[in-house]
Amino acid sequence: MTIRVGLLGMGNTGRIIAESIFRDKRFDLVFAVKKTTPRPIDYRYSVETREMLPHLIKKFRPNIIVDFTKPEATLENIKCLSKGMGIVIGTTGFDREQICALRRYGRKLRMLYAPNISSGINILMKLCQIVHRFWKDADIEIIEEHFREKKDSPSGTAKKISDLFKQEIPIHSIRAGAITGEHKILFVTKTQKITLSHSSFSRQVFADGTKKAALWLNQRRRNKFYTMEDVYGESIFKD
Question: Which of 11, 23, 152, 184 has the fewest CB neighbours in a 10 Å radius?
Fold first, then answer.
């Protein structure tokens, strides 16, 4: 049985995700939504404007909504969803107050909050936990690089990595050219340094991560605010 997906957000990343879902036989891309009026000739699937979202949800009854828009738009989009629906949120740039709002909506929806949606980033975070577990005296710094137009700085992923350590970690952000995405975590003592890094060569990593997230969320039956830690399992080590 295919998973019916509605995609919100047709920016550079959203278009790649849409094409990947459209080509994947496990999914049925029932609609996509973009901010400006689309030209049907530009797409091989149904694309409408944001005003049509309530109608599209009622007509196509998607199993999963995928949102790659902006924080303010995401919070408005959620209001159109019915109780129990599933939504994967790949949007980044939420502040703490907005995340609290998402958590409240998560009481009536199956919500997967996934600003760190690529598999490599999630593996990197597990490795960070291992290093920190055995090297607690090391200083930690995070360096993240993204394309010039990326709005949020630091990135949502960098903030998530910082939160792993339960202490204030300096984050250095670079916005330049067409860098798809790179995160480096430095663990440094007076005599040694360990550097963990992850680089994205293509936005296809976000499409692959989105499909994994949608497959996982579609199997959940409980209305809850989930994160990618739920998808990849709990911490490797526990104190």
Answer: 23
Both structure tokens of 82? 């019915």
Domain boundaries along the sequence of the chain: 3-117+204-232, 119-200
Express each pLDDT in 23-74 by its tens digit: 999 999 999 999 888 887 788 889 999 999 999 999 999 999 999 999 999 9
Q: Which fold has domain 3-117+204-232?
A: Rossmann fold (3.40.50)
Distance of alpha carbon 77 from its chain centroid, rounded?
A: 16
Q: Which of 35, 108, 126, 150 is catalytic?
A: 150
Identify the three-state secondary structure at position 41.
helix
Distance in angstroms (rounded) separating the CA atoms of residues 20 and 82:
26
Is 211 marked active-site? no
pLDDT tens column, 64-115: 999 999 999 999 999 999 999 999 999 988 989 999 999 999 999 999 999 8
| DSSP single-letter state for residue 92 | -
With 0-12 / 13-18 / 19 or more C-beta atoms within 10 angstroms meaning exposed / middle / buried, residue 32 is buried
Q: Mean pLDDT over all residues of the chain? A: 92
Residues in CB range of 180: below 8 A, 6 or more apart: 146, 147, 199, 200, 201, 202, 203
> What is the rounded distance in angstroms from the CA atom of residue 131 to the CA atom of residue 149?
33
- H or E segment and range at residue 162: helix 156-163
Q: Confirm or reject CATH 3.40.50.720 for domain 119-200, answering yes or no.
A: no
Whether 150 is catalytic: yes
Among 146, 198, 211, 212, the one annotated catalytic:
146
pLDDT attached to residue 235: 47
